[in-house]
Specification:
The chain is an alpha/beta fold. It is built from 13 helices and 22 strands. The chain folds into two domains: 260 residues, Aldehyde Dehydrogenase, Chain A, domain 1; 190 residues, Aldehyde Dehydrogenase, Chain A, domain 2 (3-Layer(aba) Sandwich). The longest helix is centred in the first third of the chain and has 21 residues. The protein starts with 14 loop residues before the first strand and ends in a 5-residue tail after the last strand.
Length: 487
């Protein structure tokens, strides 16, 4: 049976500034359904006056919000988490409509993201300072941590609810206010977050939502003296530009940028289990995941067996409209991604690699591309050097430890990496040697609320999640006091 994707109302799209929703604008952008290519909504774009008011409202709200106790902030975030779970099916349907992922994945994203709101609500109560023992009994030395102020955030289309929410709850829990520019391709989740925050009792101005040109918005907001911090998730190229702009204005920044995750499969691993688990992870969100396993280095003795099983499982993937029953992978988010997949596969063929699964576009409507496995070829393949950000994996054999570490660390990226082995010493030595912000061994254990998420090198800096989540939103103040008569 096929679900009816027209039996619900798609989220009404607007901007939220100072607690007021704005739906009409001189300029609006189209929102497309990636499964059909049809227009499903229009997104209002902010004027310079809108941006100025967003900053002003966020600053006014900050003056009061920073003094609200962490307990009160947490109560609002917990109410939000409860509402997100309650409305997950409804929000998920809008997400599938504009982002394309299967409905079960969309609903799962919302429910999992709610855990981030709960965790930040609790962890905000543990933003501690400290007392430093002094050298003089008449002197007191304190370290306190204070919210930096108004923050801005830019979030991507691949996980439109969870990526936005992680930035929002980190800012709000720390006592900051935030202006969010979500993804124009899949905007309904951003709007839903704002509505639920209002319903949860968040004061006006603490969260503002704006739309329009990312370049213009970032340049305008970062030049504002009231804005103190930027958080960005997206491509390396854009991240470097924003980091440069933030540096020019002496703004704090957190950059969660692209990855090109290596997978190391040793010959002592459970090969069939690894292949099946990795196939399921590769097709998640059509491979449009910054931590998606992409470069597969398989020890020579196990290479043929792994590739055969991995390709078999990938080829079994049911691709289709995210509302259809049994669909495991939906369309790519926009037409540019399909063109990119075709270009990667063409390059692989020209360089003598073998396409052992997929390698073709599916149908003429929407942005569907078959899950693809490329085997062989050299490290000169584009797939070995550029993040595909789609449902393509490339596998190549390796000989020994030194070789695979050299090849895995050969790129400037350093976000996620994966290791499969039956040896504790191999696991430990490989984890130590890999140049990455995160290493997951024999499972996929990344992006939990209580664990830090972030990369090194060209994959950015700063962490989201874990106790490190607040570092970018807090200033450290040292206070020392002299009492002539010690207590």
């Amino acid at each position: 049976m096929t679900s009816d994707n027209t039996s619900f109302a798609y989220e009404r799209l607007g901007m939220l500034i100072g607690g007021r929703w704005i739906y009409d604008a001189e300029r609006r952008g189209e929102v497309l359904d990636p499964a059909t290519g049809q227009v499903i909504g229009h997104l209002p774009h902010a004027t310079d006056a809108d941006l100025a008011e967003a900053v002003a409202s966020a600053q006014r709200a900050f003056e009061k919000w920073k003094d609200r106790s962490p307990l009160e902030r947490g109560q609002i975030l917990r109410r939000f988490a409860d509402l997100a779970r309650k409305h997950a099916d409804e929000i998920g349907r809008s997400m599938t409509r504009d982002q394309g992922k299967p409905l079960a994945e969309a609903i799962g994203e919302i429910r999992f993201a709610a855990d981030h709101a709960d965790w930040h609500a609790e962890e905000a109560r543990r933003i501690y300072g400290r007392v430093i023992p002094s050298r003089d009994p008449r002197v007191q030395q304190l370290v306190v941590r204070e919210p930096v102020g108004v923050c801005i955030a830019f979030t991507p289309w691949n996980f439109p609810f969870s990526q936005a929410l992680r930035k929002v709850v980190a800012a709000l829990a720390s006592g900051c206010t935030i202006i969010l520019k979500g993804p124009a391709e899949s905007p309904s989740s951003t709007v839903a977050i704002a509505r639920l925050m209002q319903e949860s009792g968040l004061p006006d101005g603490c969260l503002n939502i704006v739309w329009g040109s990312s370049t213009h918005i970032s340049e305008t907001l970062l030049s504002s003296p009231e804005v103190k911090k930027i958080s960005f998730t997206g491509s390396v190229e854009v991240g470097k530009l924003l980091a440069s702009l933030a540096g020019r204005h002496m703004k704090r920044s957190t950059m969660e940028l692209g990855g090109h995750a290596p997978v190391i499969v040793y010959d002592d691993a459970d090969i069939d289990a690894a292949a099946e688990a990795l196939a399921a992870q590769k097709i998640r969100n059509a491979g449009q995941v910054c931590i998606s396993p992409t470069r597969f280095y398989v020890q020579a003795k196990a290479y043929d067996r792994f590739v055969a099983r991995f390709a078999e499982k990938v080829a079994e993937t049911k691709v289709g409209n995210g509302f259809d029953d049994g669909v495991q992978m939906g369309p790519l988010c926009h037409a540019r991604r399909v063109t990119a997949m075709e270009s990667f596969v063409q390059d692989a063929r020209e360089q003598g690699a073998e396409i052992v699964a997929g390698g073709t576009r599916i149908g003429n409507a929407g942005y569907f591309y078959a899950p693809t496995v490329v085997a062989g070829g050299t490290d000169a393949l584009r797939l070995m050097n550029e993040e595909p950000f789609g449902p393509i994996a490339v596998a190549t054999p390796f000989g020994d430890f030194d070789e695979v570490i050299r090849r895995a660390n050969s790129l400037p990226f350093g976000l996620a990496s994966y290791v499969f082995t039956g040896s504790s010493s191999r696991a430990q030595n490989t984890a130590r040697a890999l140049a990455a912000g995160m290493v997951s061994i024999n499972h996929f254990g990344l992006a939990l609320p209580e664990t830090p998420f972030g990369g090194i090198n060209d994959s950015g800096y700063g962490s989201e999640g874990g106790e490190e989540t607040f570092d970018g939103y807090l200033s450290t103040k040292f206070v020392t006091r002299f009492d002539a008569v010690p207590a």
